[in-house]
Amino acid sequence: MDNIALLTTLTPSEMRQLVREEIEEALKNFKATNQQNTRKKTLSFKEGCKYVNISTSHGYKLTSKRMIPFSKQGKKIYFNVEELDRWMLENKVVQTSEMLEDVETYLNKKGVSYE
Fold it and tell me: Which of the 8 DSSP states describes residue 95?
């Protein structure tokens, strides 16, 4: 109730100033939140190794054998975050239930009863 009484006693210029201050504060909060949510798309070699939790020596081994997606600019190695995410999820470990379903399907196709 006090806020309503305060708003009715403000002059138009005071009201504009109050609105301006609130908008500036909201924009500042939005920018801070947006910067926290924005992540780099390209990582240096060391950042990429840290991102996938491997040592730099292992990173050099993987890049030299072309077992991990990377880019090279001169002598510098870079990683794309999206490509690293896909690479980490490539070798999915099959759950036991999925494996049993596959075995059952295979045996049914062959006409073999396993019970």
Answer: P
Q: Which CATH architecture has domain 40-115?
A: Orthogonal Bundle (1.10)
Q: Give the number of other Cβ atoms within 10 Å of residue 61's Cβ.
A: 13
Q: Which string of b and e fits 2-31 if b means at least 16 CB within 10 Å?
A: eeeeeeeeeeeeeeeeeeeeeeeeeeeeee
Q: What would the two tokens of residue 31 be?
A: 């920018």
pTM over 0.70: no
Tell me: the pLDDT tens digits for 16-61? 888 888 888 888 877 776 665 567 799 999 999 999 999 999 999 9
Closest CA to 90 of 52, 41, 57, 40: 52
Q: Give me the residue label for tokens 């070699």.
A: 45
Measured in Å, how far apart are the chain's first and last C-alpha atoms?
Answer: 76
Percent helix, strand and coil across the chain, each rounded to 5? 65, 10, 25
